[in-house]
Design a protein that fits this description.
Layout lengths: L2 H13 L3 E8 L2 E6 L10 E6 L2 E6 L16 H4 L3 E10 L2 E6 L7 E6 L1 H15 L6 H8 L1 E6 L10 H4 L11 E7 L4 E7 L2 H7 L9 H15 L11 H7 L5 H8 L5 H5 L6 E7 L5 E8 L9 E2 L2 E2 L4 H20 L9 H4 L7 H11 L2
Parallel strand pairs: 1-7, 7-8, 8-9
Antiparallel strand pairs: 1-2, 3-4, 5-6, 5-12, 9-10, 11-12, 13-14
Bound molecules: iron/sulfur cluster (2 copies).
One iron/sulfur cluster binds next to helix 10.
């Protein structure tokens, strides 16, 4: 598929009733917004990331998907930061509960990275896997079409290969693209990953990719796998963290951690939320809202009589041990996909791969 073909595909998605969302530039970062044409995409831009650092810089080509990940993730679309759950209206003695409308909007997300899609599957398991699926999430998920893009370079804080979640787009996508760019060509290797994806691609009558074109794309993705900015040794990590609850290393992290919750808000798998009831002064109209919460907030662990995790040390330990150890007990998989957002967007540059390496060195 060439650039004109991709533009036709975006137009075809809008015509099929999808609102197309994807990477755009806003506030000096790659953020998710509406994509009406290819000019909305971050053409020729990439992100430089390090612990506590993120900046957009120009690439030396016109790649459309040549970035890694930014502060936004699919979580914003599927589990919005704030949403009303229901409204109650009192008229005299009668109380009426008005549930929220189930979302019906069809969204096509263009340009989801492999780790992003794995994070969505991780959240699916949490929010849809039990006896009581989250109805709002379920409706949004059913209406979401995913067009993934395999990475051909890795960011400074990426470690998806350590977590088995990238850089190649696999399960969970409807269509997978690999952007191939050189002095002589700019095209995409396209693969239908679901029947819905195949149906949408079929009218475009794309030519078959030659084996050499496929090989070049695969080589570029394989090169990205070798450029990871970070590594996490996961062998025995779950058990080590469970046994190192009293390690003095948690005290060391606590001297640096601001308990600001940035890491949980940018994390694409963190799902904790709280509910708040608001009412008018007459008590005739009230609303229940759900909003993102964080285990870094002291009142997050409030039980009768006070917060269970009063120290920063206990809150950081809870976060890290849930991500990399107890999540596996609960859901059979890690709660981390190696996207690196928590490292990049930590204002003091705390790096979970470095903290784990220190724990591993101290408790061999
Ligand atoms: S814990 Fe950090 S690296 Fe892992 S998925 Fe969350 S934000 Fe990404
Ligand atoms: S680890 Fe960093 S981002 Fe997370 S709460 Fe502590 S200071 Fe904030």
């Amino acid at each position: 598929m060439d650039l004109a073909g991709l533009a036709d595909f975006v137009a075809a998605l809008w015509s099929a009733g999808y609102r197309v969302i994807g990477p755009t530039v806003g506030d000096g970062a790659i953020v998710y917004g509406e994509v009406r044409s290819l000019s909305d995409l971050p053409q020729g831009l990439t992100d430089q990331q390090e612990a506590g650092q993120y900046r957009l810089v120009r690439r030396n080509d016109d790649a459309l998907f040549g970035f890694h990940v930014g502060p936004h993730s699919l979580k914003r679309l599927l589990l919005p930061p704030k949403e009303r759950l229901f409204t109650t209206i009192r008229k005299g003695p009668a109380l009426t509960v008005v549930p929220e409308q189930i979302p019906t909007e069809k969204i096509a997300f263009l340009g989801a990275k492999a780790c992003e899609i794995q994070a969505m599957l991780t959240q699916d398991q949490v929010l849809l896997g039990g006896h009581h699926p989250d109805v709002q999430y379920l409706a949004r998920r059913r209406n979401l079409l995913i067009i993934g893009t395999s990475c051909t370079s890795a960011g400074g804080t990426c470690f998806c290969t350590s977590m088995g979640s990238g850089p190649s787009v696999g399960e969970g996508a409807d269509v997978a693209l690999t952007e191939v760019i050189s002095e002589s060509t700019h095209h995409f290797i396209v693969e239908a990953k679901s029947s819905r994806g195949a149906e949408l691609l079929s009218p475009l009558r794309l030519p078959s990719a030659s084996s050499s074109e496929q090989q070049i794309a695969a080589q570029q993705v394989a090169a990205a796998a070798k450029q990871m900015g970070r590594t996490l040794v996961t062998d025995g990590l779950k058990e080590l963290i469970a046994q190192a609850m009293d390690s003095s290393h948690w005290d060391s992290v606590a001297t640096r951690c601001l308990s600001c919750a940035n890491c949980t808000l940018v994390c694409p798998t963190c799902f904790c939320n709280t509910v708040e009831d608001v009412t008018d002064l007459a008590g005739e109209h009230s609303e229940r809202w759900r909003r993102w919460d964080s285990c870094f907030h002291e009142d997050f662990s409030y039980l009768h009589g006070g917060a269970v995790r009063q120290s920063v040390k206990s809150r950081y330990r809870q976060w890290l041990s849930h991500k990399l150890s107890t999540w596996i007990d609960q859901f059979g998989r890690s709660g981390c996909v190696g996207c690196g957002r928590c490292i990049t967007f930590c204002p003091v540059g705390i790096d979970l791969t470095a903290e784990c390496a220190t724990l591993q060195a101290r408790h061999p």
